[in-house]
Design a protein that fits this description.
With about 160 residues, the chain is an alpha+beta fold. The chain contains 4 helices and 11 strands, in the order ββαββββββββαααβ. A hairpin with a 2-residue loop joins β6 (about 70) and β7 (about 75-80). InterPro entries: Cupin_2, QDO-like, RmlC-like_jellyroll, RmlC_Cupin_sf.
Length: about 160
């Protein structure tokens, strides 16, 4: 009989090593019937995510380590360990490590699921694929990612 639960030890689960972070899928779309995806994101010193939104899915971030600056719906804020941020569909947001922070770690919930599929498809792409604007736009559309622009400017003294 198949197990009716999932168990992953530290460092377990499908994982994706990128230049700015290392992400682990802890609970996948397959585990939840598409209801949500839970991921652990280990942020590197150069982590920054440009301004974007999702039309159909929400994101929740729970900061475990480090300090992460979020730009949400026109507001900048610094999230420290223990901070929880929920961003509903349609709300513009971006984030980066706070000034002086060399790394961080956060849990992320995507509801409904799907972001794990996006990472899996990205991991199979070549450099030429990443440079193919039409291919990237189609992939972003498939996974409800609407890129708006770069990380907004912030007076770094605020963080």
């Amino acid at each position: 009989m198949a197990k009716r639960y999932a168990y992953l030890p530290p460092g377990g689960g499908p994982n994706y090593e990128w230049s700015a972070d290392h992400t682990y899928v802890k609970v996948s779309a397959a585990d939840t019937g598409g209801q949500y995806t839970l991921m652990e994101d280990n942020l590197k010193a150069n982590f920054a995510l440009g301004l974007h939104l999702h039309r159909y899915h929400a994101e929740t971030f729970y900061i475990l380590e480090g300090r992460v600056d979020f730009f949400i719906d026109g507001d900048w804020m610094t999230a420290e360990p223990g901070t929880c941020i929920h961003i509903p569909p349609g709300v513009e947001h971006a984030c980066c490590l706070a000034k002086g922070c060399e790394g961080g770690r956060m849990l992320m919930i995507y509801q409904p699921s799907g972001f794990d599929g996006y990472l899996n498809e990205l991991s199979a792409m070549s450099e030429a694929d990443f440079e193919d604007t039409a291919k990237m736009e189609a992939l972003n559309a498939k996974y409800d990612i609407v890129n708006i622009g770069p990380l907004p400017e912030r007076d770094r003294e605020e963080s």
